[in-house]
Known about the structure:
CATH topology of the largest domain: Rhopdopsin 7-helix transmembrane proteins
Shape: elongated
CATH architecture of the largest domain: Up-down Bundle
Low-confidence stretches: 1-21
Order of helices and strands: HHHHHHHHHHHHHH
Distance between the termini: 49 Å
Amino acid sequence: MKEIVTAITVVFFFILESVLASTGDRSQMFYSCLQDCLAQNCSGSSQDSQSSLILRALQWTCSDECKYICMWPTVNWFVEAEIGVQQFYGKWPFVRIWGIQEPAATLFSILNLVGHVVMIKRFRKEVRPSAPFYQMTHYFCFICCHAWLWSTIFHIRDVRFTEIMDYLGAFSMVLFSVYHFLSRVLAFESRSFQYSLFFGIAIGFYFVYHSYTTFFVKMDYGYNMLINIAFGAVNILGWSIWCFKFYKRRPYVKQCAAFVALVAFTTLFEVLDFPPLFWVLDAHALWHLSTAPLAILWYKFLIDDCHHMEGQKLDLEKLA
């Protein structure tokens, strides 16, 4: 156990260090190029008017443009010197398409968003509004769509506001999944409504507090990563135990088990970081691509689970 904790700690600080500092933007070649570009192009009053309309719309400033321009000769120098591709300001170098900063991650975020929209429509067709967790599933869909919308915006243009909204959107999905799990475990238990209300208020207040500190106090990358890992682990472990308990009696639960296993597996893309293929497709983009079809599996489980709970509800009403 001690060895596992030590290994996790080492990986955590390695990731944190890679986020806070990058070799590319600290290199002398990049610095010299950037200073020259800023002096030549960004000193006049009409500096930003030289950019295209789409770049101005996406708030690409003259300084940002210089950083993008100087990044590529620096990348070529690193490659020719056999040092390898390096990150710049905590990010791999990406080819910009129509002003979009990370085209592949943007596209795959949209795919995730579309997946939730399509599957909630299917859910509404197959599940009656009177079924337990009907409203809960709609809340889940709204939170996920909101999160993937901000993921799309963030990958289009990475600025402080879009970055924070992307982080908070992802965290809201993790927190609501934990709340969903707790509510599902307590379903049909005595005082289940009171317990569900308590957990909902507690998790909601924590999210509001975390959002406030992130916006107005400090954007703590390390702490944000830690709480996402912690709540994500609780969510995966909790659903795994629930699936192990019921999969023999309820065959549809295997869909939930498969979903949980695949979610855990796809997170490996976040660990196996590598420079983007064709300057577009990196590990983070592949992670978004791998999660897109998982929405189908999860909603199919939710549909079957609502049908099962509807049957339980009718049985309890007969006994009452």
